[in-house]
Amino acid sequence: MQTSQHVLFERSEIKDRHLVRKKIREHIADKAKLPILIFPEGTCINNTSVMMFKKGSFEVGGTIHPVAIKYDPRFGDAFWNSTKHSMMTYAFNVLTSWAIVCNVWYLPPMVKEEEEDAVHFANRVKAVIAARAGMSVLPWDGGLKRKKVKESFKEEQQKKYCHLV
Q1: How far is CA 73 from CA 103, 132, 155, in A?
Q2: Which of 9, 5, 30, 6 is nearest to 19 (CA)?
Q3: In whole numbers, what is the pLDDT of the chain averaged over residues?
Q4: Three-state SS string across 80-137, please?
Q5: Contact 68/133 with Cβ under 8 angstroms?
Q6: How many Cα neighbours within 13 Å face the side chain of 136?
Q7: How far is it, in rounded angstroms, from Cα 129 to Cα 10?
Q8: What is the separation of C-alpha 113 from the centre of its chain, rounded to a whole number of angstroms?
Q9: Which segments constitute the Phospholipid/glycerol acyltransferase domain (predicted)?
Q10: Quick one: pLDDT at residue 130?
Q11: Over the stretch 31-72, which tens digit does the pLDDT of each residue have?
């Protein structure tokens, strides 16, 4: 990992977030360095939707080169539901699959617009990726896979539903 210039951090540590932001800004300012590959969802889900992007990747400036990735589950499922299967079961399933087929689309570069904040920029990039891969856009992050849904979020969704009805 040291030879490929990884930027490691502890997500729960506030000081690490600021240090990572600084390191990423320095990295993209150095034109001799390779681009950074970032997975802004922070986790994977079941190949049907694109979850909320973490805004930190979109606060540092630079050009974003979006990539849409979608697995074709016909020959083998690359998705690991860690609440249902152990790592060993998942590894066995992947290794004994006929094939793991993945569609990858390299999308046109995107830059943050002047009046746009990091959250709106992240949402715009997310929408482009989701549209290309034929996935739906989700307004929440991957933490819902392992945490209980906040009451305030439930109430907000109920209000939106009431306005539709």
Answers
A1: 11, 18, 35
A2: 9
A3: 83
A4: CCCCCCCHHHHHHHHHCCCCCEEEEEECCCECCCCCCCHHHHHHHHHHHHHHHHCCEE
A5: yes
A6: 6
A7: 27
A8: 21
A9: 1-70
A10: 93
A11: 888 888 888 876 667 788 888 888 888 888 888 999 999 988
According to the per-residue pLDDT averaged within each range, which of 18-22, 76-80, 105-109 is highest? 105-109
Domain boundaries, the chain: 38-163
Give the angle subtended at the CA of 123 by the CAs of 118 and 126, to the nearest 5°.
125
Share of the chain above pLDDT 90, in %: 24
Residues pairing with 70 in the sheet: 103
Give the global pTM: 0.76
pLDDT of 156: 84
Counting Cβ atoms within 10 Å, is residue 132 exposed (0-12), middle (13-18) or buried (19+)? middle
By residue count, the chain amounts to 165
CB hemisphere CA count around 130 (13 angstroms): 18
Q: What is the pLDDT of residue 158?
A: 87
What is the reported pLDDT for 134?
Answer: 92
Question: How many Cβ atoms sit within 10 Å of the Cβ of residue 62?
Answer: 17
Residue 134 burial (C-beta neighbours within 10 Å; 0-12, 13-18, 19+): exposed
107 vs 29, 80, 118, 160, CA distance in Å?
22, 26, 19, 32
